[in-house]
Design goal:
Blueprint lengths: L8 E2 L3 H6 L3 E5 L2 E6 L3 H10 L2 E4 L4 E6 L3 H8 L11 E8 L5 E9 L4 E5 L4 H15 L2 E4 L4 E7 L3 H8 L12 E6 L2 E6 L8 E7 H14 L10 H10 L15 H4 L14 H10 L4 E6 L12 E4 L2 E12 L4 E8 L9 E4 L7 E6 L14
Parallel strand pairs: 1-3
Antiparallel strand pairs: 2-3, 4-10, 5-8, 5-9, 6-7, 7-8, 10-13, 11-12, 12-13, 14-17, 14-19, 15-16, 15-18, 16-17, 18-19
Length: 374
C-alpha cells in the first residue's frame, strides 16, 4: 500500500494533458487534469454534444481461474453467479460489519472477470480480493497501471463513435461489455457510465492510449471531441446524485443508510450479509438527499451543517456549482425523523450568513430534455 506522503500517480496520458493546457491537481492519489481552462464549457460540451475523459485512475482488477465466480459471488452484493457473459453490474464490497469497502462495477467476460473500483480504494480492494482468492482457487491481478481507460460521454457520442469506429458503439446497450482486439492489442469496451448521459468506456494498453487520445481529440475531423477534466466529471456525478467513497460512503456506512439496497441481492449470502440485513430491518438513521441552493450562494464545504429552523439535521457530503442548473447543488445526509417537512433547510457557512436550500430527492431532476439516456 502506498505511503500517504507518496507522490501522486500519473496516467500514461499525463504529457498529453499538459500539452493541451490542462490544470493538473491531485485527486484520489493521482495527478489528474482538473480542467482544460473552462470547466463550465466542458460541462456544456458533455451535456450538449460529447467530450472525452481520461478515467485511467479508475481501478481495474482482473480475476481469473475456476473459482473466480465463487470468489466474486462471496465478496460482491450483486447476483454474480447468475450474471451473463459480456455484461457489467453495479455492486458493493462490504466488510463483515456491513460497511462499504467500496462500490464497483463487476464485469463478466468469456475469458475472465474485471472489477472496476474507486481510484483511492484500489489498494484496499486488491488486498481484500487477494486475501480470499486462494480459498476459492482464483487468481487476482491488477491491470490499472498497465492499461489506460478513456470515456466518451454525451448525447452525441453514439453517432460520433459510429462514424469513426469499425463497429457500431450505439448498438451496445447499457450494462453491456465487450472484449475485442485491434491488430495485436486487446481492449475492453464497457457501457457502465453511471450518469444520465450516454457513455462508452474503453480499457486499452498504455502503448495505444496516446494514439487513441490524439485521434479522438485532433484527428477525427468534424467528429473530434474536446477533453473534459475531473471538475466536469464531478459535476456530472453530483447532478446524478451518485456516491463517492470517502464522501457519501465509507467503511462505516451500510447500504441501507446510503440508499444503495438496489445493488444488494438479498437472496444469497455474501460477506457482511447478516449485518446488512440487520441494518435494513432496523431502518436507516440518516437519509441521503439533494440540496438546491440560490444561484448567488457560495458552494458549501464538505461537512457543512444542514439546519431547519435553527436545528442541525444533517451534513453536506459533496457540493459543486452546476452550470446546467445555474446554481450550487449539494448532496447531504439528513435525519429522516427531523428533516424539514416543507423541504426547506439552510446550510451553515463559516464566514457568511446561512444559505437557504431546498431539499430534493435524488437524482436531481433532469435539466436537459434533449439528452440521450442510456
Amino acid at each position: 500500500m502506498r505511503n500517504a506522503q507518496a507522490q501522486p500517480l500519473r496516467t500514461c496520458l499525463h504529457d498529453r494533458h499538459l500539452a493541451a493546457g490542462a490544470e493538473m491537481g491531485a485527486e484520489d492519489g493521482w495527478d489528474v487534469p482538473v480542467s482544460y481552462g473552462d470547466p463550465a464549457a466542458e460541462c456544456r460540451a458533455l451535456h450538449e454534444r460529447a467530450a472525452v475523459m481520461d478515467v485511467s485512475p479508475v481501478g481495474r482488477i482482473r480475476i481469473r481461474g475456476d473459482g473466480a465466480t465463487d470468489l466474486l459471488d462471496h465478496l460482491c452484493t450483486a447476483d454474480v453467479a447468475r450474471q451473463e457473459d459480456d455484461t457489467a453490474a453495479y455492486t458493493l464490497l462490504c466488510n463483515e460489519r456491513g460497511g462499504i469497502l467500496d462500490h464497483a462495477m463487476v464485469v463478466r467476460l468469456e475469458r475472465f472477470w474485471l472489477l472496476t473500483c474507486s481510484p483511492h480504494r484500489r489498494p484496499a480492494v486488491l488486498e481484500h480480493l487477494q486475501a480470499h482468492a486462494e480459498t476459492f482457487g482464483a487468481k487476482v491481478d491488477d491491470q490499472t497501471c498497465k492499461t489506460a481507460m478513456l470515456a466518451v460521454v454525451g448525447p452525441g457520442a453514439p453517432a460520433i463513435l459510429d462514424a469513426v469506429l469499425p463497429e457500431r458503439a450505439s448498438a451496445m446497450g447499457r450494462g453491456a461489455a465487450k472484449l475485442g482486439s485491434m491488430m495485436v492489442a486487446r481492449y475492453v469496451a464497457l457501457r457502465t457510465g453511471p450518469t444520465r448521459l450516454w457513455s462508452l468506456e474503453v480499457m486499452l494498453p498504455n502503448l495505444l492510449a496516446g494514439q487513441a487520445w490524439r485521434f479522438i481529440t485532433h484527428k477525427a475531423g468534424r467528429n473530434a471531441l474536446p477533453p473534459a477534466g475531473f471538475a466536469a466529471r464531478e459535476v456530472l456525478r453530483i447532478e446524478a446524485g451518485l456516491c463517492r467513497h470517502g464522501r457519501e460512503i465509507d467503511e462505516t456506512t451500510n447500504p441501507a443508510t446510503a440508499g444503495l439496497t438496489a445493488a444488494v441481492c438479498f437472496d444469497k449470502d455474501f460477506l457482511g450479509a447478516a449485518a446488512v440485513r440487520a441494518a435494513l430491518a432496523a431502518g436507516p438513521t440518516r437519509q441521503r438527499v439533494g440540496l438546491l441552493l440560490p444561484p448567488a450562494a457560495p458552494v458549501p464545504a464538505f461537512g457543512a451543517a444542514v439546519t431547519h429552523a435553527g436545528r442541525p439535521i444533517g451534513q453536506v457530503t459533496s457540493a459543486v456549482y452546476s452550470p446546467s442548473f445555474a446554481r450550487p447543488i449539494a448532496l447531504a445526509y439528513v435525519d429522516p425523523a427531523s428533516a424539514a417537512p416543507d423541504g426547506r433547510a439552510a446550510i451553515e457557512a463559516q464566514d457568511t450568513a446561512p444559505s437557504p436550500a431546498e431539499i430534493t430527492e435524488l437524482p436531481f431532476p433532469p435539466c436537459h430534455a434533449n439528452g440521450v439516456r442510456s
